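Postdoc handover notes: sequence design on the structure in folder B. Input tokens:
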């Protein structure tokens, strides 16, 4: 079961005036998306009106129990320490399924976890597959900008539109298999915490708020498919875009509530928290250097070049 530990934090965002944030344990459920429709929000409805249309989602996969992985090289992935493939074990030997597009009837691609580990004491989980995935399956760059509480507002991520992935409410659709149980909503990066801890893990964390109509008076933005994580979504990626490409900014970790109104006014809103990749870039890159391999087509091309050189000799 995916769950979030109960912890209380003190907010470091000036707009929130150090309001208390409470994160609570919950059971598995579907991601909450404002004005949800299957055509707009379900990846595997394979509809041109999909909110994520125009971007390649093939590098986000799931195992048979619904744990998420996001590929950052052809064989290295990110997930959540508390909800990764094969958890609560190491995950070694667990199969993960990917689809080359958004068509649930297309042949899927599988990879097997060969090794994985926690990044420091965070909830980030990094691992590698036994073999590189083919070029039909995408992999994504991670955001690498270091952020502190004092620099978040000028980081380029503050106010950035982001895609949020989670379990769909369309539970019986698209072949009724876990890998195609996939909805996407949107939100805006509206906060940052340094060194959040739940007593087991910690992490520098990006925050989205599930806003309501009229929250602009508090300085918050509501998107068309405003989304909020729920249980079962841990380990899914927060994606931002640039130049027509998706980039991994964070990995889903926790949910909670916060009062976004200044002064005595109370306006409680749900929040989603993501472990921020940029502050752990050195550890991520070190792991990639150890375990990353080229995709199979590149290996075959290189082998062909070697044979050609030998023949010329």
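Designed sequence:
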């Amino acid at each position: 079961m995916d769950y979030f530990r109960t912890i209380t934090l003190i907010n470091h965002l000036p707009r929130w005036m150090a309001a208390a944030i409470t994160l609570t344990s919950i059971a598995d459920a579907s991601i909450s998306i404002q004005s949800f429709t299957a055509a707009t929000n379900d990846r595997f409805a394979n509809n041109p009106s999909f909110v994520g249309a125009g971007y390649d989602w093939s590098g986000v996969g799931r195992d048979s129990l619904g744990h998420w992985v996001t590929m950052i090289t052809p064989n290295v992935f990110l997930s959540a320490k508390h909800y990764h493939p094969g958890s609560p074990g190491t995950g070694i030997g667990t199969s993960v399924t990917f689809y080359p597009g958004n068509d649930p009837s297309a042949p899927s691609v599988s990879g097997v976890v060969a090794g994985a580990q926690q990044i420091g004491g965070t909830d980030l989980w990094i691992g590698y597959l036994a073999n590189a995935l083919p070029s039909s399956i995408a992999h994504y760059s991670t955001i690498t900008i270091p952020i502190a509480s004092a620099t978040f507002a000028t980081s380029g991520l503050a106010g950035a539109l982001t895609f949020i992935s989670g379990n769909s409410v369309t539970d019986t659709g698209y072949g009724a298999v876990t890998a195609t149980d996939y909805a996407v909503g949107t939100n805006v990066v509206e906060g940052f915490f340094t060194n959040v801890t739940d007593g087991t893990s910690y992490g520098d964390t990006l925050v989205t708020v599930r806003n309501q109509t009229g929250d602009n008076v508090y300085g918050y933005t509501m998107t068309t498919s405003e989304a909020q994580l729920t249980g079962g979504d841990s380990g899914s990626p927060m994606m931002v875009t640039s130049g027509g490409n998706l980039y991994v900014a964070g990995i889903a970790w926790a949910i909670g509530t916060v009062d976004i109104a200044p002064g005595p006014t109370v306006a409680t809103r749900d929040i989603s928290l993501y472990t921020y990749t940029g502050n752990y870039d050195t550890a991520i890159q070190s792991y990639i250097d150890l375990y990353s391999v080229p995709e199979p087509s590149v290996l075959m091309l290189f082998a062909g070049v070697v044979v050609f050189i030998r023949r010329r000799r």
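Context for whoever picks this up: The longest helix spans residues 296-312. Don't rerun without checking with the PI first.
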